[in-house]
Amino acid sequence: MSTSPRSPQRLPYYIDLMKQFEGRTWSHETQADYYNAMVSNQMGDFSIGKSKHPEMSARDKINRAPKALGLIQLKPTLRITEAGKKIQNKYLFEDVLTKQLLKYQLPSPILPEQKDNKGMFNIKPYLELLRLVYTVGNLSRSEFYAFGVTMTDYHDFDETVKNLKEYRKEAKINHIRAPKHYHDYMMNYVTKLYSDKIESNDIKIRETKNKSSNKFIKTKFNNVGDYGNAFLRYLTGTGLVVVNKKLQVVVAPNREDDVKYILDTIPREPKKYTEKEYNDFLFDVNIPKLLSDDREELIIKINQLDARLSEYSIKSSTSYDGLSSLDLKKIQYEKEEKLDKLARDEYAKSLKSYDDSQINDVLDTFEHIKAQDYFDNPLYLEWNTWRALTMIDNGNIKGSFKTNLNGDPVNTAPGNTADIVGDYGDFNMICEVTMSNGKKQYEMENEPVTRHLGELRTKANGKETFGLFIAKTIQPNVITEFYYKHRIPTRLYGGTVEFIPLTIDDFSTFFKNVTKDGHKLNENDIQQLHKKTIEYAESAEDETDWYNKIRKYVLSL
Question: What is the distance, to the nearest Å, from the Cα of residue 16 to the centroid of all Cα atoms in its chain?
Fold first, then answer.
């Protein structure tokens, strides 16, 4: 399966942009035009940088998951399929993604077997991954990678479960730490798997000139993690699976019936298709049938949501007579969003209690984020920074990320909004976070974060608005850019645009300092941050001096 796009939530944006290219041949010219349109639109929950080979970058976006999942047909001319159209409907996104993933099989006419893997694959990968999570009950991320990604034939499922249990037993008996256990197991696995290539010295790695067996094995080891991360993102994108707060991959607590129905009704054996037969099957968004396609089941789910909403004294007297399945899915979606907001508001109130265990959990989560322990570290950075800001002051802090009904973060903020917005009455503070670094940090974050702040200030009729920018590391060119934007006003945004750049380490230290004595920051304390960053910009010798003064002030609070 493709790792592009890594997040399935990007798929609707890719497909929507394709509307203006339908009917054209998927030529180099069209590919370059499509990529340039992506750059111009900066769509979705991501930013597109510049590419030296736009046609190649476009193929990377479209020829992978959108094609493999039957969302778009490339030949003879570009066409958005019915599945591609319906996945853009937010009420249907999870169902359509689920159906398309369940139809994906190996081998298939669009991914024919090669000489070196002939006869190896006989599997519907997402169906068996779902079965593995359901059967075992919970998997660590490394277990999901080691035993999920490496399963290539569904006949080996029982053996895979047996090996997983032995893997756990060995770690427990020998007191082996999980990272080392995974590393040693997978390095041994890929060494055996590619032993024929190593023996024949067929070990050249793309984009490298030198042959090295160690480099080859390490690259294959890393590939398992890359593909495993993509598999996990797509599986969680269905809503059927979540990664809980213990970092375990589990079936979503409210979706056990849906998963059992899938496992009981979807055939495990991949069929032999001609390319036309497979495309007809793939493009048909009505198959396979899911439990959520049953009208009565939808009403049961809605009634369950009403029962949970009643805990917040919200009553519903909706009549479902004459409503279509789409109407019911819309009602379900809206009730889930309402419940999510209520649950998040309740959680925000609990965060303001300054409970020591929650403070320590926030600090511990920052450490896990820095160590890249989560399957989606940018998402957890957004969520955890929201928790920290909610805890330390009296502002009304809103995160744009999405959570599920259990409060677990499931998707990052959409690209047309700030990650986090704090309303303090007389002023606003936005917070933008990123895990990107190097040149990529400047290319991806510079324009969007400035635009988010400027647009919010314009929308708020010029109300004082400034921002925090939090990253694992802060690149010098980003510091330079923020310094100059403190000094140079723009007509577009009605003045200067002020951001305070902080590393995760510095923000974590700041959070620890201001929570250690139970003293909450008030609105004046937060506003003083803004005043100081302007004051330092006016008096600093250069951008480095400005940044160092800001750090010193923040860490002194």
Answer: 19
Q: How far apart are CA 311 and CA 307, in angstroms?
A: 7
pTM of the entire predicted model: 0.87
Tell which residue, 294, 288, 292, has the closest CA to residue 124: 288
- φ/ψ (deg, to 5) at 194: -105, 25
CA atoms within 13 A on the CB side of 524: 0
390 and 352 in contact (C-beta within 8 Å)? Answer: yes
Q: pLDDT grade, residue 500 (50/70/90)?
A: very high
Residue with tokens 């090996």: 163
530 within 8 A of 521, measured Cβ to Cβ? no
Dihedral sign, CA of 50, 54, 56, 59?
A: positive
Q: Where are the beta strands (DSSP E) in 129-247?
A: 139-140, 241-243
pLDDT at residue number 517: 75
The C-alpha angle with vertex 470 and arms to 419 and 36, in degrees rounded to 5, equals 60
**Tokens describing residue 227:** 């593909």
pLDDT in tens, 475-493: 999 999 999 999 998 888 8
Determine the residue type at 433: V
Phi, psi angle pair for 467, to nearest 5°: -140, 155
